[in-house]
Every structure is written in structure tokens, then in C-alpha cells.
Design a protein that fits this description.
The complex is a heterodimer of chains A (282) and B (314). With 282 residues, chain A is an all-alpha fold. In chain A, 73% of the residues lie in helices and 0% in strands. In chain A, α4 runs antiparallel to α5, α4 runs parallel beside α12 and α10 runs parallel beside α11. Chain B is mostly helical and 314 residues long. The chains are: A mainly alpha (282), B mainly alpha (314).
Chain lengths: 282, 314
């Protein structure tokens, strides 16, 4: 089968998987909201308007206003930008870090043990607590949230890549490449790495989901992005203070968070079923 | 068994060395000069100098690390800057609520998760199965801390059935403790119950496909007897290991749940320490939780061997 035909068949399988299609649609929807946030929000999400505080949802304020009179719809729409930025960047950084560490550990017997012990040690921390501690050291900010979450989630990807590499390393075609005199780095990048793409995509969509959730948790706890930045976690935190009078302030950003998580989880489940039938949950 | 236990405990040493090193390096991740960050903008140069010497930050890194290890080995986690007491004492005072919350949530997760998974697996593809698995998917995606807020709105603000926030010690007033603990435990345990339900279901399906299940059916046992006597016990083994993973997520989730429900546990301790730059407390909390998690996993591995005699400990 030619490469183009293989790719066409693969795409058709993806398109037929209901989870992949639903998940991708949801993720695209959230991404569109983030891209066109300025156009679809009705108010400036940062403008305080104390005269207009805690208004229930109306035609003027689709999702009501919060304790400072900010428009919740505009906050939710703009919040998707921070969530997607943190989620996507963390996914890319953990993949790169995971590839580098996983390839080294899977390929070099000397580096394997020390690298894996360090990964074990990092995974011994409950994820959110390690992220909180890193934020304590680095201080609030989007860049620091991305840094903290990348440190927290890289070990998982590294372990995944390592185990994939270990499975492939002894296969005949890798031995053949070595017999032909290919250098280690070339074998790792040209012959082994392409086989890691499938597991990476699956893992990546789950890490994307974890990172969005963790970013919201950090914001909710007041140790994530600074409070004046519209993010779902920050808005839910401000809704917590007024839950008795205005349930809508925390309800809607939470729904947006749940929807994004659902989309990415569906995408991950579907990709896993399509790309790697061995991992399928019956 | 003893040799296995010794080997498993020995394997913990490198993990704990990394854990302690990460906690140590935390101070060195502070941008700029950690001492002036800790003391704030009003500190005089003399104070900064004194604090730097007291912390040993003027010594080479390896010497600081060595000192940190010996201190931790003696059980000395340092002195809190703000609470005016040793970190170990602060941790002990705050441990009870977190322990009670984590284990109540685990109970909720298992009590909801395991039966749901088994019911779903009993008739795969049925309406029950699909409804339960849809609920489980939603349960995985719904953020626990947001679920807590909705529970507070519904059950405390609207219906007034349960208190919105607070904590009572189970040792002092068990009845009040229960009332305070219901909402936190359910909202923390719910999303984990979804995970447990999915895994119990797939384990049950695997076991139900085995030959000995067919034999049990063929000899005329009732479906209930097959499910509970033959399949359930064998499906339990992987489910027990999931509980180890669940514990890590629950300990982390407990931090957030404590903030929502105003429970005076380790979560509130670490968050207020972060906001006040009380680094010894931050280090103490992550050291203790990571160690607890590692030890819980050790216990789970031991249980694993006890439940399934086929798993040798060689």
C-alpha cells in the first residue's frame, strides 16, 4: 500500500470514530471562541462597573455579571484564551521533554536507571501539590503556570516514550538499520521516533485536558495567573464568594471548563481506539 | 515475604532522595535573591545577611543539600516563619481533617464506583451499561472543585440540608463531623468513582470471558452467583491497584476541597503558606504528602500479593 493510500485510510478511520469527531468539534468550538474572543464578547471583560454588580442573566448580560459588575459571558469567552494557551503550550513542552528524556532512557542503558529514578521521584508528588509548590517559588503568571505544569506532567510522557522505545528497539528493522551502520541518533530519530507519534497524540490530548483543569485549579486557589487576568479558575474563585446571591458567576465558567475537558477526553479516547487498538478499553 | 518487603522498602530510598532534593531545590527556583523575596521589601541589608547565613545560602550548593538531608533524616522540617512553631508541629495539627477527608472520599469513590462498574459489565451494551458509562465519562470531566460549589448552592443554600462549609473533629462530635463531611467527601470522591467504575467494568468484562466462568454457568449457577462469587473476586485485583493511583489524586484534590469548604487541613496550610511565602511549610507539606503517597502505594502492593496468591513476590 502506498503511503498516500495508508494516510487516506487512516483519516477515514478517524472520521468514522464518533468520539474523535465529537471531541474535535468541541475543541474547535473552544478554539474559535478563543480566537474571536474580541468579536463575540459583548463587553470589556476587565472593565469594572460596581453599579451593575451581580445582575442575573439578561439580554444585556447573557450570563449575568459578577461582584465587580464584569460581564460573565465576556469573561468566559476571554478565559478560553488563557486555558488554551496554557493547555497547548504544556502539551507541546511535555511532549518535547518526554521525547528527549524517554529516548535517552530507552536507548541508553547507562542513562536509563538514573533518569527513571528521577521521574519516579517527581511522580511521587500529588500533581497539584507539586504545581502549587512550584508556583510558590516562581510567583503568579501565565509563564510560571506553564513551567509548573510542564514539570509536573513531563514524567508521564517520558515513561510512555521510554516503554515504546524499549518495545521497538529490538525489532528486526532497527537491528537492520544498525547493521547497515546507521548512527544511534539517526536510528532514534528516523526509525524509532515515528512509532511514538500515535501514543504521543493520545497522551497529548489527555495532558491538554489535565493542564486546562490544573490551570483552573491554580487560579481558583489564587496561585495561578494573576487575579485581574480573565481565566476560568479566577472567575470561579470570585463566584465562590457570592455563591449565595449569584450562582451564575461560578456556574458558567465551570461549564466551559467541563465542556473543554469532555472534548479533549473524547478526542483522547477516540484517538486511542483508532491508533492503538491494543489499549482499547472494552 | 520478608525478603520481598525489604526489597520494596529499599526501592523507596531513591524515590525519597529525589523527593527531598526537589523540596530542597524549591528555594533555589525563587527568581532573584530568595532571602530578599522571603523577607519582603522592608528588610535591611543586615537582616538579609543574617537570614542568608542562618539558611546557609552562602555555602556551596552540595553542602546545603547535605545539610538538608541530615536535617530531614532527624525529622526536623524547620521552623515556620509565620506560625511561630516547628513545621512538624503545624503539620500534625492540620493532618486530621485531611486524613478524614481523603479516606471518606476514597470510601465514596469505591462504594459508588465498584458496583457501577460491575452492573455495567454484567450486561455490556445494555441501557444500564451505556447510561453508567456516560455518567462515568461526565464524572471524569466535571472538575471536582466546581462540583463542590454547585453542591453547596443546591444542598446548603437552596435546600438547607447540610452546612455550606466548616469542619468538626470526628473525635469531638461525630454527628456534626458527619454532617460537615458529606458534601466534601462526595464531591471529592465522585470523579474518582467514575475512574474506578470504568476500570472495574473493563476488569469484569475480561474475567467474564474466562473459561471458568463458562464452566460455572454450565454447571447451572445463577447469574448472581457467577457474578459475585466467581467473577467479582478475580476482578478485584486490578481494582485494588487503581486505589493506589486514586490516593494521589485524592490527596491533591483534598487541598482544593479544603479551600472550598473551609476545612482547616493541610490544603489550607499550604495555600496560606504560599501566599505568605512561608517556604519551610510549603516544603513540609509536599514532603509529607509525597512520602504518604509512596507508603500508601507500598501497602497497596502488599495487599495485591495477599489478595492474589498467583502473584509471587520473587
Amino acid at each position: 500500500m502506498s503511503e498516500a493510500a495508508a494516510r487516506a485510510r487512516w483519516l477515514r478511520r478517524l472520521r468514522r470514530n464518533r468520539n474523535v469527531v465529537t471531541g474535535a468539534l468541541i475543541v474547535v468550538l473552544v478554539a474559535l471562541a478563543a480566537l474571536f474572543a474580541e468579536a463575540i464578547s459583548t463587553h470589556d471583560p476587565r472593565r469594572l462597573n460596581p453599579a451593575n454588580r451581580l445582575r442575573p442573566p439578561t439580554l444585556e448580560h447573557y450570563l449575568g455579571t459578577d461582584e465587580f459588575g464584569r460581564d460573565v459571558w465576556s469573561l468566559v469567552v476571554h478565559g478560553s484564551q488563557v486555558s488554551l494557551l496554557v493547555g497547548a503550550t504544556t502539551m507541546v513542552l511535555t511532549s518535547l521533554g518526554g521525547i528527549a528524556i524517554g529516548l535517552c532512557a530507552g536507548y541508553s542503558r547507562r542513562l536509563d536507571l538514573p533518569l527513571m529514578r528521577v521521574m519516579d521521584g517527581l511522580m511521587a508528588f500529588p500533581a497539584i501539590l507539586l504545581a502549587i509548590a512550584l508556583m510558590a517559588a516562581r510567583g503568579p503568571g501565565v509563564g510560571n503556570v506553564i513551567f509548573a505544569l510542564s514539570v509536573v506532567y513531563t514524567p508521564r510522557t517520558a515513561m510512555l516514550i521510554r516503554s515504546t522505545v524499549l518495545g521497538i528497539r529490538e525489532l528486526d528493522y532497527v537491528l537492520a538499520a544498525r547493521a547497515l551502520g546507521r548512527r544511534d541518533l539517526a536510528i532514534a530519530l528516523r526509525h524509532i521516533l515515528p512509532n511514538c507519534v500515535g501514543p504521543l497524540l493520545v497522551q497529548g490530548s489527555f495532558i491538554f485536558a489535565y493542564a486546562i483543569l490544573a490551570e483552573a485549579i491554580l487560579g481558583f486557589l489564587g496561585v495561578g495567573v494573576p487575579p485581574y487576568v480573565p481565566s476560568w479558575g479566577n472567575v470561579i474563585a470570585s463566584g465562590k464568594n457570592v455563591i449565595r446571591e449569584a450562582f451564575w458567576v461560578s456556574l458558567f465558567p465551570g461549564l466551559a471548563l467541563t465542556l473543554s475537558g469532555l472534548g479533549l477526553n473524547l478526542l483522547g479516547d477516540g484517538l486511542r481506539d483508532t491508533l492503538d487498538p491494543r489499549l482499547r478499553v472494552p | 515475604m520478608t525478603a520481598y518487603l525489604v526489597r520494596r522498602v529499599a526501592a523507596l530510598v531513591p524515590v525519597l532522595v529525589v523527593v527531598v532534593t526537589v523540596a530542597f531545590l524549591l528555594i533555589h527556583l525563587i527568581p532573584g535573591d530568595p532571602v530578599s523575596v522571603m523577607l519582603g521589601p522592608d528588610a535591611t541589608p543586615a537582616q538579609i545577611h543574617a537570614a542568608r547565613q542562618a539558611l546557609g545560602l552562602d555555602r556551596p550548593l552540595w553542602e546545603q543539600l547535605l545539610k538538608f538531608y541530615t536535617r530531614i533524616l532527624r525529622g526536623d522540617l524547620g521552623q515556620s516563619y509565620f506560625l511561630d512553631r516547628p513545621v512538624t508541629q503545624a503539620l500534625l495539627e492540620r493532618a486530621e481533617p485531611t486524613l478524614v477527608l481523603t479516606f471518606s472520599a476514597l470510601l465514596v469513590a469505591v462504594v459508588i464506583g465498584v458496583p457501577s462498574g460491575i452492573v455495567a459489565a454484567a450486561q455490556p451494551g445494555s441501557l444500564w451499561d451505556r447510561a453508567l458509562m456516560l455518567a462515568a465519562l461526565l464524572g471524569v470531566c466535571v472538575p471536582g472543585f466546581w462540583l463542590s460549589l454547585n453542591f453547596i448552592y443546591l444542598f446548603a443554600v437552596r435546600l438547607g440540608w447540610l452546612p455550606a462549609a466548616g469542619y468538626a473533629s470526628i473525635l469531638v462530635d461525630p454527628l456534626a463531623a458527619l454532617r460537615y463531611m458529606v458534601l466534601p467527601a462526595v464531591s471529592l470522591g465522585f470523579s474518582q468513582s467514575a475512574l474506578i467504575a470504568r476500570i472495574s467494568r473493563s476488569c469484569m468484562l475480561e474475567v467474564l470471558a474466562q473459561d471458568y466462568i463458562r464452566t460455572a454457568r454450565a454447571k447451572g449457577l445463577s447469574p448472581a452467583a457467577v457474578t459475585w462469587m466467581h467473577a467479582f473476586r478475580n476482578a478485584l485485583v486490578p481494582v485494588v491497584t487503581v486505589i493506589g493511583i486514586t490516593m494521589a489524586i485524592l490527596i491533591g484534590g483534598a487541598v482544593v476541597t479544603e479551600i472550598v469548604f473551609n476545612i482547616p487541613g493541610l490544603g489550607r496550610l499550604i495555600i496560606s503558606a504560599v501566599l505568605r511565602r512561608d517556604y519551610p511549610v510549603v516544603q513540609g507539606v509536599i514532603l509529607v504528602t509525597a512520602t504518604a503517597y509512596v507508603l500508601i502505594n507500598l501497602v497497596v502492593d502488599m495487599l495485591y500479593v495477599l489478595i492474589d496468591p498467583r502473584i509471587g513476590y520473587e
